[in-house]
Specification:
The chain is α+β, with helices and mostly antiparallel strands and 170 residues long. The chain has five helices and six strands.
Length: 170
């Protein structure tokens, strides 16, 4: 009987770990898809990664307060600048995930490289880290909060204005 109890405990522990590993995979995938879809201008794909309401906070870089937005609000804003670059590339790493049953937090480093041909330099790079909160809705992990923690930027910062003008002129 004792060996049966031990076997059940090991099986329960293994199942819990398997579920936790699956959650971690899905949590990381939700954040990765956010950035991949952003870089390909797949705005429906970006919106699909978010919860119905999202707290978006870029205050460490912009000085603007955090705001609660819809996914459509976020992509509407991003579409005013990001498609104006020839390419963008968001890279994340050093991912740390903490999760409970239906809530999770993901921390990661992030580098965003923006490319647009210009006589004063073709690259603008922004470096920092992110804090994401996610909630499990209908068995899918959705981003409910996204905070960018600015470290530094390098390159041609005037490319932002040029990208905005490119979007306006298209």
């Amino acid at each position: 009987m004792k060996s049966l109890i031990i076997a059940l405990a090991i099986t329960s522990s293994t199942l819990l770990n398997a579920q936790q590993m699956e959650d971690y995979k899905q949590i990381q995938e939700a954040v990765s898809k956010l950035f991949i879809n952003t870089d390909t201008n797949n705005w429906d794909g970006v919106e699909a990664q978010f919860a119905v309401k999202v707290t978006l906070d870029y205050s460490s870089m912009t000085g603007n307060s955090a705001a609660e937005l819809t996914p459509k609000d976020i992509t509407t804003s991003w579409k005013t600048v990001l498609p104006g670059f020839a390419n963008t590339h968001h890279q994340i790493g050093n991912i740390i995930i903490e999760s409970k049953e239906r809530e999770a937090h993901l921390f990661c480093y992030g580098t965003a490289t923006h490319y647009l041909e210009d006589d004063n330099g073709n690259i603008w790079t922004v470096v920092g880290s992110y804090d994401f909160d996610l909630v499990k809705i209908d068995n899918l992990w959705k981003i409910s909060s996204m905070t960018f923690n600015y470290k530094y930027q390098d390159g041609n910062t005037a490319l932002v204005t040029k990208a905005i003008e490119n979007v306006k002129n298209d």
